[in-house]
Amino acid sequence: MSDKQVNNNNNNNNNTSQQQQQQQTTTTTDAELNNLRGLSFRDYLKTELRRGYLLENDEERYTARREKVYTFFKIPREIEKFVAYGFFQCADSFFFVFTFLPIRFTLAIWCLLTRLLRKIVGLYASNRRILKPAEIVDLLKGFMVIVCCYLIGNIDTSVCYHIIKTQSTIKLYLFFNMLEIADRLMSAFGQDTLDALFWTATEPRGRKREHFGVLFHLAIAIIYVTLHSTIVLLQALTLNVAINSDNKGLLTIVISNNFVELKGAVFKKFDRNNLLQISCSDVRERFHNCVLLLVVVIQTMKEYAWREERLWILLPDCLLVCGTEVLVDWLKHAFITRFNDIPADAYRDYTTLLASDLIMCKQKYAYSDHSDLVARRMGFIPLPLGVVMYRILSQSITLTNPTSYLILGTGFLCLLSFRVLNGIIILGKACDLIHSAQTRRVHYQPPPDPNHGTGRTRPKPDPKPDPVGTPDAKHDRHTVPDDCEYHRRICDGDRFQNFGKWGGGERRGRCFHPICVCGGGGERREPHIHPITS
């Protein structure tokens, strides 16, 4: 007998056994229905009092429910790991404005002057660029910070504080919500404005340029940073009024406003992409609130002549604001993962994604600076916050003698050392995360084939076009195997557009997933080197 006939016999036997089981189930159900129809009142009461049941008959469902409970309590720990790593990445970008950006700005000016002088005397090639793209970006960033600090310095914060303080509680609550919405909208629009400026200023020569010029984009960027800095400054003043006011009603309303976020997020449908965006937004919001609270503390301590007892009065309210934010994040993510069946390991993959961004920007020929990558991933733009912090510090600290300048220099060195230490720590952590992800991929065991040993063959899907003839074939930099844990968890079938073979559990091609390092959005913008499978 041939193998084909044996397989047909096995399939017929399986179909016959399944039909017998269905008939037996139907017969049993009919018998139970007949018994229930003839049940007397006495037997009904007796059944209700003595009726037993076995939970193990539905073992799979109860086990799944228990795992959901365990996952619910694991979410706070996993989200805090992700938030902590993202928080220090935001801190790295924020401290860059005060430490390395002034140094790089000074070096860029020095290179500009020396190369211009060499070009005048004929020691510098005329066809070469005077400044490199990174030096041009540093000059633009430094110039924007200087101009925006000058413009923000004309705002009288004392007058703004008293105007805000004289308003009613309801008006302040509405004003605070309007500022929060405006801050998010400006963050979404701001990085596009800055990227457009940087690309316009560094675009290679010889191309057909379709833009309005560098000065136009520079003016728009300065207007954006100034407006965003003003919004952040007003946020800090409103929070200052809420904390230092005798009536704690506004502070209570501001704190309770966080719980409104639960209503808008918990009962919606989310996938892993949306959850990543929410998680990055929470990281950015938490760091933003910490900077606002620091501004409030500095302003209040200055008004009270830096007395220590005032700090201990402010500390409980600041901790209450931070604690409420953390609690709301825990509840929000716990219920989102509960309702959408997202495992807790998703946050580990998100942390690996942040680590891959950091690794890419630390390469010799990176696509952009780390602060720009953080801005694109999390929506955190450090320039407006840096301008506001400079405005508050310049108003709160006076330099009157050489000792004060010595203290300022010592503080700058301490801040520079902290930024270097923070950068080393997050870079080392990124290497560990990438290494652990690669280890998990090596030791990952794919699930067994349910058709193995049944005589049935896996159906073959429709053939996909080969990548050799596609326009983007030159960007195919890696192969995604069938046991890739990273893509199995993050890139589902609907999001994975394959330009190679797809059959028998084998995946080959490029990943267009929105949260991957290529930028996403269904469009390949840069050659993609996967952080795990490359």
UniProtKB/TrEMBL annotation:
One of its GO terms (cellular component) is endoplasmic reticulum membrane. InterPro entries: Tatp1 (IPR008010). It is a multi-pass membrane protein. Residues 1-29, 442-480 are annotated as: Disordered. The chain crosses the membrane at residues 214-237. Its main location: membrane. Keywords: Membrane, Transmembrane, Transmembrane helix. It is found in: Membrane. Residues 7-29 have a biased composition (Low complexity). Pfam families: DUF747 (PF05346). The keyword Transmembrane applies. One of its GO terms (biological process) is positive regulation of cilium assembly. Coiled coil: none annotated. Belongs to the TAPT1 family. This is TAPT1-like protein. The lineage of its organism: Eukaryota, Metazoa, Ecdysozoa, Arthropoda, Crustacea.
